[in-house]
Specification:
alpha/beta; Rossmann fold; N-(1-d-carboxylethyl)-l-norvaline Dehydrogenase, domain 2; Single alpha-helices involved in coiled-coils or other helix-helix interfaces; 7-stranded mixed β-sheet; 7 strands; binds 6-phosphogluconic acid
Length: 473
């Protein structure tokens, strides 16, 4: 049987995606630069309709036309190398999909280059890790709409399905870099969710003196309520695990507190800064990873920098846990409000015409940030497709109103006790800034005008002004 689609790159994501496609009844061509990997996949799955090739030429020639090819290779120079090899072998109208965690500007550049040869190019965000790729990821494809239509039936079959209405977690995102941009913001939001969960754990552990098992129980309970999400679920599970090297300790107590990152969260912050959008929760989460990685410096500083003198006592453990839960939900909301605002500004800047409601919809299942909460976001944008900020939706406005005191208390207590809560702090500061009719930026403008004659605008009349700061009035 002639393969309907081909997958390049047989590392775990590529292999699992190929197996996922095959499981929906398709014959799939597979290729990997190192042939032994391709061979191994075929040997491990003899019953599957996988057609291996050991040269790019054979791989391309084996495919049904117009060809559909998904590249699942390490983002960066590797992607350019594969494209360069493929280009002379492809025909006008073929569809090339990059499913890596690619920087969206690279996708825009490649898209423009391939366009010259009439090759359709789709930059597709793939979320859900190894299992997601195999069982049903959330897919964020960006490129020519006609190209999307050529692969949509396959993508819809392999994508995760939302519990609420069974809809596949894939939709046409927009032209060129739109898909990879949205995946990048997804990852930024992922950083924020992870940091807020980690801070919640830290407060329970270090301020409430709870055991790891007790905290696991709290996350388990939370996962049944409005915080229900994949990341809360896996955290509850992680906290129940014991050291696999036999120390008897909880696994989290032997994992070094120095976070890694592969760059997508950083790109998300960088892009927000470029576009002039505040994205403080995600950015603080990125910085929290960076400062965690400065382990040696922190160890040295912990020996010389004094901690606060005061003592913070919580009256009631159950009440404090509920306070943390509310603070977490509130802060998550701030993070998503920022993420969606960033996508709105990016959409206007790059002319992508992003459909925010659909983005929330395809994040309801399959991806790392999947959560009950995404249904509320979907509903908010369904009600009001041009919603400027999630906080202005009635449901979320109510959450903010009812939960804000919890964040204020939590941040106050934690700060008094010297327990860092940068994510929570960023969240409440954003809320207070966003809802402020007047901010002290008048001082900033006066200073800028004072030392650099940068001019200012007035509250009482139109125009651009400069004050003669160096002249006695
Ligand atoms: C996903 C994840 C995935 C990957 C990140 C991790 O959506 O499936 O986001 O893409 O796990 O690259 O990123 P860091 O290594 O930067 O934490």
């Amino acid at each position: 049987e002639t393969p309907t689609i081909g997958v390049i790159g047989m590392a775990v994501m590529g292999k699992n995606l190929a197996l996922n496609i095959e499981s929906r009844g398709y014959t799939v061509a597979i290729y990997n630069r190192t042939g032994s990997k391709t061979k191994k996949v075929v040997e491990d799955h003899p019953e599957k309709k996988l057609v291996p090739s050991y040269t790019v030429e054979d791989f391309v020639n084996s495919l049904e036309k117009p060809r559909r090819i998904i590249m699942m290779v390490k983002a960066g120079a590797g992607t350019d190398a594969v494209i360069a090899e493929l280009l002379p072998l492809l025909d006008k109208g073929d569809v090339l999909i990059d499913g890596g965690n690619t920087f969206f500007e690279d996708t825009m550049r490649r898209s423009a280059e391939l366009d010259k040869s009439g090759i359709n190019f789709i930059g597709m965000g793939v979320s859900g890790g190894e299992l997601g790729a195999l069982r049903g990821p959330s897919l964020m494809p960006g490129g020519q709409k006609e190209a999307y239509d050529l692969v949509a039936p396959i993508l819809e079959q392999i994508a995760a399905k939302a519990d609420e209405d069974g809809k596949p977690c894939v939709t046409y995102i927009g032209p060129n870099g739109a898909g990879h941009y949205v995946k990048m913001v997804h990852n930024g939001i992922e950083y924020g969710d992870m940091e807020l969960i980690a801070e919640s754990y830290n407060v329970m552990r270090n301020m409430l003196g709870m055991t790891v098992d007790e905290i696991a129980g709290v996350f388990k309970k939370w996962s049944e309520g409005e915080l229900s999400s994949y990341l809360i679920d896996i955290t509850a599970d992680i906290l129940t695990r014991k050291d696999d090297l036999g120390s008897g300790k909880p696994m989290v107590d032997v994992i070094l507190d120095a976070a890694g990152n592969k760059g997508t969260g950083k790109w998300s912050s960088q892009s927000a800064a470029e576009l002039g959008v505040p994205q403080s929760v995600i950015t603080e989460s990125l910085y929290a990873r960076y400062i965690s990685a400065m382990k040696d410096e922190r160890v040295a500083a912990s020996k010389v920098l004094p901690k606060p003198v005061g003592n913070v006592k919580f009256e009631n453990r159950e009440e404090t846990i509920e306070l943390i839960r509310k603070a977490l939900y509130f802060s998550k909301l701030m993070s998503y409000a920022q993420g969606f605002e960033q996508m709105r500004v990016a959409s206007e800047h790059y002319n992508w015409n992003l459909q925010y409601g659909e983005l929330a919809q395809i994040w309801r299942a399959g991806c790392i940030i999947r959560a009950k909460f995404l249904q509320n976001i979907t509903d908010a944008f369904t009600k009001q497709p041009d919603l400027k900020n999630l906080l202005l939706d009635d449901y979320f406005k109510d959450i903010a109103k009812n939960y804000q005191e919890s964040v204020r208390d939590l941040v106050g207590f934690a700060t008094k006790a010297g327990v860092p809560v940068p994510g929570f702090m960023a969240a409440i500061s954003y809320y207070d800034s966003y809802r402020s009719e007047v901010l002290p930026a008048n001082i900033i403008q006066a200073q800028r005008d004072y030392f650099g004659a940068h001019t200012y605008q007035r509250t009482d009349r139109e125009g651009i002004f400069h004050y003669s700061w160096y002249t006695e009035q």
